[in-house]
UniProtKB/TrEMBL annotation:
This is Protein-tyrosine-phosphatase. InterPro entries: Ptyr_pPase_sf. It comes from the Bacteria.
Length: 201
């Protein structure tokens, strides 16, 4: 897969980051789940869930798909929340800065067409509930990316496993001088971890 040049630079940077030991332990159940699916020769379905499906779960779905493509892992990625809002504009801006090409249609809750290479590959991103018709109804891993959703959704119907992989919300830096750098920092952390996960499978 020939990723866009800027995105390839971001991937190289993400893979150079050091993942702390406690985070490696956090990621272990996800790696084991993917290894199990690989041994069974079936596609792994990963649904990344956060309250508003606007920041961390969007980053996670997108980077997990890129990482799966890069390392040839048979996985499909999804995302959802417990409330419908919109994919945050700061999330979109960060993805563009890091090398994705994006177009959008719709107004209140736009659907973004996200491309990472020159072929037909594309990710559709928009805010939706975790049980949206676009997402799997059973046989998937529910990967909780924020503590609020993890605490307030103790049961995800149809999930065969629930894996907390929690991230700090960059929303705390909205409308500050650090906004762009903190969104990029969180996106890179998620990229680093999803690349590690897929590389380890």
């Amino acid at each position: 897969m020939a990723f866009y040049p800027k995105l390839e630079e971001t991937i190289i940077k993400a893979e150079s980051l050091t993942i702390p030991p406690d985070r490696l332990e956090t990621l272990r159940p996800l790696i084991e789940y993917l290894q199990k699916k690989k041994s069974e020769k079936v596609t792994a379905h990963l649904n990344f869930i956060c309250t508003h499906n606007s920041r961390r779960s969007q980053f996670s779905q997108i980077w997990a798909e890129v990482a799966a493509v890069k390392y040839g892992i048979d996985a499909k990625t999804y995302s959802g929340g417990v409330e419908v809002t919109a994919c945050n504009q700061r999330t979109v801006a960060s993805l563009k800065r890091l090398g994705f090409q994006m177009g959008a249609f719709g107004r209140e809750n736009p659907t973004y067409k996200i491309k990472y290479a020159g072929g037909d590959e594309m990710i559709k991103a928009y805010s939706k509930l975790f049980d949206d018709p676009a997402n799997p109804v059973d046989g998937f891993a529910a990967i909780m990316t924020c503590d609020h959703a993890d605490e307030n959704c103790p049961f995800i119907p149809g999930a065969e496993i629930r894996i907390p992989v929690l991230y700090v919300d960059p929303k705390a830096f909205d409308n500050t001088s650090e906004e762009s750098s903190k969104y990029d920092e969180r996106s890179l952390q998620i990229a680093s971890e999803m690349l590690y996960v897929m590389r380890s499978v």
